[in-house]
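Comment on both lines for my students:
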Amino acid sequence: MTATLIPAGSTVGALQQRPLLDAVDNRILLGHALGLSRVGLITQSERVLTGDEAQRLSCLLERRLRGEPVAYIVGQREFFGLPFAVSDAVLIPRPDTEVLVELALERLPPGGRVLDMGTGSGAIAVALAHTRPDAVVTALDVSSAALAVARRNASANGVNITFMASDWFSALGTEKFDLIVSNPPYIASGDRHLAEGDLRFEPSSALTDHADGLSALRSIVAGAARHLAPKAWLLMEHGYDQAAAVRQLLAEANFNQSQSWRDLADIERVSGARHG
């Protein structure tokens, strides 16, 4: 493929009727290249692309054909009905993680203090703060680049969050919370999925613990009790085959009411339990 993949003189309507990619990807990239909304692509179907526009769209399509995620190409992904800026410094927010947000909202008391560990783009923390403006939200990450993205997303979505640079609990002191949530790295080192699809382009340190996939989850469970108020919940996203192992970790750490919840694909995706 070359940067002349789309010839000048092509119309918006023709490019939508005979897409080179999946229709959704095609629409997103076409709209991004031309600065048009979904409605604009419909109302301007007869618009003819200039040479510069055709070249710009061709470059975007080439990047996608090489496998680069659409979210990184356009720099944005929607999560929990909110827009989030993304870059290769953070994971792309996924619909499955919305289950974690919904569970957290059900367990967050009025005016509750919630901690999001390994916040990445800030998707979980921002979604919680936006839905529950009464909540006191803290989010931490070890990556300064990720925290910069998260702060940008908090500002863009008009929410107030305290961000901290921390390797898990190291910077928290004695602070306690009414809820702790996390979507930590949980893919085992050497897992074939790391070399497939969008994961090839996402930051490996946010995907894998470079071990058995449970080391980050072990660290969170081991340290959570010192930072949870009585009866507070710990909720963690994990891999498709890790639910039983995570429940065992919670039981061994003397958490109560340990259970798992399924995602949109009917896979046990989130496990959690109550402290004390």
User: Anything to note?
Assistant: The radius of gyration is 21 Å. The chain has a mean pLDDT of 95. Strands lie at 76-79, 82-85, 113-117, 136-141, 161-165, 177-182, 228-237, 256-262, 268-274.
